[in-house]
Amino acid sequence: KYTHMFESIIRSNPDRKSWYVGHLFLPGGSKTLDSKTDDSNSGNFRLSGWKDAKKLSIFDDSGGITQRSAVIGTLLRIVDFRRMNDGKLLLLVQALERFVVVRARQETPFSIADVQIIPDEEEVEWQQQYFSSINESITKTEFFTDAVAESFRWHEYEYDERVRLSVRNDEKDDLRSTDISGVDLKRILPFVPYSSTSSPKHIIGQRNKREAVPVNNMNRPEDEILLQIKEAGMLREVPTLSLEDLIGNRSLTTDHLEKSIWIFIDKYLRIKEMPYMPEELLGLLPPNQSWPTGFCLEKLANSKLLENRVPSKKFFRVTNDYPAHRRQKRLSFAASSLLEPSRIDGLRQSMLEIPSTRGRLWSVLEKFEIYHIKNKIDEKSNRQ
């Protein structure tokens, strides 16, 4: 089924350098769709728009939370592929944006839907501040559309499209599993490197020359869609952060949370005695920060910048001209990879369903703190 879908996408325009596809979390994976069960909840696993999904019962007959197909998903870009000798495909994809399903168009032989890209709340706020600073008056809908357009504009810099699978490519379409080296795949997974041929200055220059984003009836986002899908429970702020906001804790800014996460990452790596820090993650360390005594990651980043490497292998670190909210958004997704997502049920999906960068940073920080507390308890138990 999935091979047929990907082949259809690739063959529809074989001359393209990349192709786009949406990914949605489905409890139980594709086996759920293949099940012949007459379970009363089977309709929950069908593709549906968010307005239809919110009509489904939240609780099952036993009072537990109903499992259902997600309506908040990830926009993926296929940048490389190989055909295997057994007919399967090996794909290299990059996760670019998140979306909400607006309406289902097709269920078989594979799903097709209309979707709406959903930016973080900070991205929309940034657009509001930007247009206020240049005294340009636009509507709320245009704030939203321009936030999406701005995010796509940054793809050129944030996602290196030149990355390719480091496996045999002789177009014979007979790749074997023995041709695929785990070591080679680890070099390109799980992080996407920034482009070495673009720069923040170039992207910002494009923005300054920007023309109004055309919004016609076909691509106009629904008014207040962020608010609507939050009210419908499709996007949910982290409850503990909402409580902190309620009691007026003003110290929990996005900048503060970002710095706190880096301090915990530094501790976490030392506790875990991890000999390797992913360079793509280390490169997100904010520049010109003061760090506590004993903080090691700043020294590590500086030493990597001094290493003599070929240009294509040089260590990359974000600079001051890269917008903080873009850096923080990327960190809010990337940092959770250190938490062994496979061992935390639904971690990736829960991150997607948090409406703000600040909320995701808080969620990751909570999980690092839990790990730190657990480690201290384990140490105490071992000493007794």
TrEMBL record:
Pfam families listed in its UniProt record: LON_substr_bdg
Membrane-traversing stretches: none
InterPro entries the record matches: Lon_prtase_N, Lon_prtase_N_sf, PUA-like_sf
Domain Lon N-terminal: start-end pairs: 70-158
Protein name: Lon N-terminal domain-containing protein
Species name: Proboscia inermis
